[in-house]
Amino acid sequence: MLHRQITYPQLAAMLKAIFVEVAEEEFRNGQKRQSDSRIHLLTGVHRKDVKRLRETSADASPLPAAVSTGPQLIAQWLGDPDYVTPDGKPLPIPFKEIEVGKPCFESLVKRVVKQDIRARVILDEWLRLGVAEFDGEYVTLNSGAFTPEKGFEEKAFFFAKNIRDHIAASSGNLLGEQPLHFDRSVYYDQLSAQSVKELKLLANELGMQALTAMNNAAMAKQKTDQDKQSAKHRMNFGIFSYDSLPRRTRPRGPERERSGKERSNKAESIAQISAEETAKPGDNT
Asked: Cα separation of 117 and 72, whole Å?
């Protein structure tokens, strides 16, 4: 968060909003709308803040088109047999129709997006986010395109959406809610960097296979349920992998203005302090 200049007061403000939202959605007393006073008692958030946050939430602006329409397009691309290979990998498709009735990007956008958004606008945004590639004729969907590779706001949206549900599933399991949510992991240490890289590739491959299979099954269920009054529920199936291999994050703000000499001096100072701490007399622990 510090890399994005998100300070503690900003984090505290976001947590207030989350507390109010969860209290309002998950601690209802029947069908009656909760009062600001009750949410204040549940969360400890000041009544004035509760009122402001609830009004802000009601007036919240809609999601950007790239966020709201992107997952739907990708789901259709990966779930339609005409758009994938026999083993389920996305086929490159022409941007414009080359042959009548054959898949193309423009027809996919017209079929999925109900808003008046041109296919070129969505493609340009996908190129910016690293979701797809375009050679001037064919559009190629990148592997792992369920979430964008670039675009901080877009990635932050999916981060918030996924981590909220993951925490809800884990905390529900801790509280003994039934039925339990599936929440499992495979953990190994004492591995070489090469082994971790190979396992990471395997995780990516197996993860995409599972996501694609779940996407296709869920899309079929949604089509079956679309006219049912009971179709009021949602689900979220996610996969993550983590490893301790070193990574670099591009610094932002004042750090980027710091000269190489200043960074070197800081590193030398830290090393000197560390050496002095190590050499303190009387420390035999």
From this structure: 14
